[in-house]
Specification:
Elements lengths: L5 H13 L4 H8 L3 H4 L13 H20 L7 H33 L3 H5 L10 H15 L2 H8 L8 H19 L5 H23 L7 H28 L6 H26 L1 H5 L1
Helix pairs in contact: 2-5, 4-9, 5-7, 5-8, 5-10, 7-9, 7-10, 9-12, 10-11, 11-12
The chain binds malonyl-coenzyme A.
């Protein structure tokens, strides 16, 4: 059995993209580089891949966040803080763009059809370009801890919300689980999330440069669309799993589904509190 529309859309877009003159160059850089093509995730051997590393990293993040939010902190001069923020955001805009592009080019180069994109065959091993970008994505979530430090150093304790700390700690676990279990369809989630993050860190970059963009609400809307689209992917994954011979990493998808539902609630609440007409008029 096959899902309508999406497989045809995928193969049409793919055959259009791979025919473009720039595609082989991007493929050489982002897919066929020996380090990318030969990548293999070996639990405990690949740097930062052990469960102990993951547990310690998340524990340290939560403990330092708690301690630093309680003690009196050295106050950084505002221009220094804004310069560090700007550099950090510029780095994450660039990295998110490269990850989205790298994963997209890997999909067009390596994934034969839509079914495989959504549902990796059972016993897929986490190696090759798609998982290389998944690994970089996981490491980037650790770099994003810096957001929390910027909030604390900027003394914006109101912004050190449950949503923020919960999101930052859980997303590292989620991306670890995705790569470790060779989770089906994670590459679609990666491309979506990195695209959203290009926009989000561009927003923060402009704030750090002293310009308050008028499109803050659009960033939150974009994040919500991302969570809703995950449900569509989830539904297609369930379809392929139950109508075929099963998909890789289905259990970790269940874990991620719960996480995405919780984010949807928290972000809907953020949206209501920040952009409802009542708040605007207050
Ligand atoms: C529009 C949002 C992206 C951000 O909302 P905020 O309320 O945080 O936005 P804001 O207008 O108060 O932010 C402006 C302030 O942030 C400072 N700032 C600059 N860079 C920053 C950084 N990298 N992290 C955190 N803060 C930063 C600016 O200097 C400015 O400070 P000053 O005010 O002093 O000038 C929203 O949709 C959102 O995500 N809210 C949830 C809060 C959150 O932590 N989001 C990020 C991770 S969630 C995520 O990433 C979801 C996903 O995966 O898509």
């Amino acid at each position: 059995m096959e899902i309508p529309f999406f497989p045809t859309l995928f193969s049409t877009v793919r055959s259009l993209v791979v025919r473009q003159p720039f595609f082989p160059t991007l493929e050489d850089w982002l897919v066929n580089h020996p380090k990318i093509l030969g990548f293999s995730w070996n639990n405990g051997q690949t740097p930062a891949s052990s469960q102990r590393f993951l547990a310690l990293t998340v524990l340290c993040y939560i403990s330092f966040t708690f301690i630093l939010s309680q003690v009196s902190r050295p106050s950084l001069a505002r221009p220094v803080l804004k310069s560090i923020s700007a550099l950090h955001n510029l780095f994450l805009v660039t990295l998110s763009f490269i990850m989205a592009l790298g994963c997209l080019v890997s999909i067009f180069s390596q994934v034969p059809n839509f079914r495989t994109l959504v549902c990796f065959p059972k016993r897929t091993s986490p190696s090759g370009p798609l998982f290389f970008w998944g690994y970089i994505f996981y490491l980037s979530k650790i770099i994003e801890f810096m957001d929390t430090l910027l909030i604390i150093l900027g003394n914006s304790m109101k912004r050190l919300s449950f949503l923020h700390v919960y999101h930052h700690s859980m997303v590292v676990i989620m991306s670890y689980v995705c790569v470790n279990s060779a989770q089906s369809s994670f590459s679609m989630v990666l491309v979506t999330n990195c695209t959203v993050h290009v926009v989000m860190y561009a927003y923060y970059l402009m704030c750090a440069l002293g310009v308050r963009p008028k499109w803050k609400k659009m960033v939150t809307d974009f994040q919500l669309v991302q969570f809703w689209s995950s449900f569509l992917i989830m539904a297609m994954l369930a379809f392929y799993h139950f109508t075929g011979s099963g998909c890789s990493g289905i259990l970790s998808w269940c874990f991620n589904a719960v996480f995405i539902v919780s984010l949807l609630f928290l972000f809907s609440d953020f949206h209501a509190k920040n952009y409802s007409p009542k708040v605007k008029n207050a």
